[in-house]
Design brief:
With about 450 residues, the protein is of the alpha/beta class. The protein has 14 helices and 21 strands. The chain folds into 2 domains: about 50 residues, no CATH class; about 325 residues, 4-Layer Sandwich (Purple Acid Phosphatase, chain A, domain 2). A hairpin with a 2-residue loop joins strand 9 and strand 10. Helix 2 packs across helix 3. Keywords: Signal. InterPro entries: Capsule_synth_CapA, CW_Biosynth-Accessory, Metallo-depent_PP-like. This is Poly-gamma-glutamate synthesis protein (Capsule biosynthesis protein).
Length: about 450
């Protein structure tokens, strides 16, 4: 090779590496260290053989390659690499040490190594969304129940009369929603101007596509479409809903153009952790208006075939640090959960769920724990109609060690508005009410939920 070629080639490689590092750093929740003498930029392929670190294969845990460890050393430095190798020699697979040393879980590091986190667009092509956490080493997940922007009902009449969503879902509760790292609701309607109401169905919900902007006003990061109203105006309206949400940059789960999309988990990377969401519906249980998605037809993910819905949970568990199952189930107007809900909850937990959030009954239902995993059976209406009913948010704080705390935030839906309960006396009444609906938990004066000793 000529001398000028030898000089130019390293320069080109350094330029390309710098571009790769800039792409990674544009993803706010992926923790990559500043360059030092012992660290070099991340890359989307294994280092050249001459740069690889000599590691005995029998010292590496299953699923950890020599190339991956060379990437760890080049990205995070020799001291991080050495501590991990020492951990492996003691028989550990690294456990929480990955996150402690790098700010990312092993699964996030593997995604970083593969290159799928090089940009938000690349990540989204794998159904992964990047979200900055407000605090390092943890992510706060928040959940609300049923919401509808469908015209022809009292809540939307109030919406137009009062000048928009800010006058219906009030300041205090919006601020609380905004404070979460990832905010999720149940989207109980379609966004479309197409389709006709399903024959024989008493209540059908369809909203103007422009209403999707309300989700941004409410700091919503993710919606469930696995419910019994997203298909009210047929397949075309459902497809319009998918397109409307995608166009607004709002991920969805539990419905799709085919069954593969409907059962696909949605992933968020935040706080250096990879969180997954699986959504499914048990409703309707008698007359089936809402179609389950097929190999080539749009619809929702139902809980009829365990291979489908439990397979989705297993896939989420394999590819994430923490699995949320958001499930549409139960009996409308009933505050007490049933045995069918309990049976489903146990299946989800046995296959990897770390938290279950339910909706559909339009009223609050209780909370219980199974194998140390909380099941919130129903969050009720969040903003749905004119009834005066208690409702609430549930906030879950997840750390590298799993679910750290769970908190119920009492709210009230009244006169087509939703707001926080702020009176100390009324808050305590709300906590006592939730305890009455539950058999295996207590709620302290701040709303934190604790399982009773077994």
């Amino acid at each position: 090779m000529k001398r000028y070629q030898i000089v130019i080639l390293p320069a080109i490689l350094l330029l390309l590496a710098g571009c790769a590092r800039s792409a990674v750093l544009s993803s706010p929740s992926v923790q990559v260290p500043e360059e030092t003498e012992t660290s070099s930029p991340s890359h989307t392929a294994p280092p050249a053989a001459s740069d690889q670190v000599a590691v005995k294969k029998d010292r590496l845990p299953e699923g950890i390659s020599e190339d991956f460890m060379a990437f760890i050393k080049s990205t995070y430095g020799t001291s991080v690499y050495d501590r991990l190798i020492t951990s492996f020699e003691s028989g550990s697979d690294g456990g929480g040490l990955w996150h402690e040393l790098t700010g990312n879980s092993l699964l996030v590091l593997k995604d970083l190594y593969s290159g799928i986190l090089n940009s938000p667009d690349t990540a989204r092509s794998h159904n992964i969304w990047l979200k900055q956490s407000s605090e390092p080493n943890q992510v706060v997940l928040s959940f609300a129940g049923d919401i509808s922007f469908a015209d022809g009902y009292a809540n939307m009449s109030a919406y137009y009369a009062r000048g928009g969503i800010d006058s219906c879902i009030l300041t205090n509760v919006r601020a609380r929603m905004d404070s979460a790292d990832i905010m999720m609701i149940n989207n109980e309607f379609s966004y479309s101007r197409r389709g006709t109401p399903l024959p024989g169905k008493a209540f059908t919900f369809r909203a103007e596509p422009s209403m999707v902007q309300n989700l941004h006003s409410l700091s919503v990061d993710l919606v469930s479409l696995a419910n019994n109203h997203v298909y009210d105006y047929g397949a075309d309206a459902l497809i319009d809903t998918l397109d409307t949400l995608s166009g607004a940059g709002i991920p969805y789960a539990g419905a799709g153009r085919n069954i593969e999309e409907a059962k696909e988990p949605v992933y968020f990377i935040s706080g250096g952790l990879k969180i997954s969401y699986v959504c499914a519906t048990q409703i309707e249980r008698s007359t089936r208006f809402t179609k389950e998605a097929g190999p080539d037809s749009p619809g929702v993910l139902r809980t009829d075939n365990p291979d489908l819905y439990l397979g989705a949970v297993e896939t989420a568990k394999e590819n994430s640090d923490f699995v949320v199952v958001f499930i549409h189930w139960g009996t409308e107007g009933t505050n007490y959960y049933g045995e069918d809900q309990q049976s489903l909850a146990r299946q989800f937990i046995d296959h990897g769920a770390g938290l279950i959030i339910g909706c559909h009954p339009h009223v609050l239902q209780g909370i219980e724990y199974y194998k140390s995993v909380p099941v919130v059976y129903s969050l009720g209406n969040f903003w749905f109609n004119s009834r005066t009913i208690p409702t609430g948010l549930v906030e879950a704080t997840v750390t590298p060690d799993g679910l750290k705390k769970l908190q119920f935030i009492p709210c009230i839906q009244e006169n087509c508005s939703t707001d926080l309960v702020v009176s100390p006396d009324e808050k305590q009444k709300s906590f006592q009410y939730m305890e009455q609906l539950s058999s295996t938990i207590t709620i302290d004066t701040e709303g934190f939920i604790h399982p009773l000793p077994e």
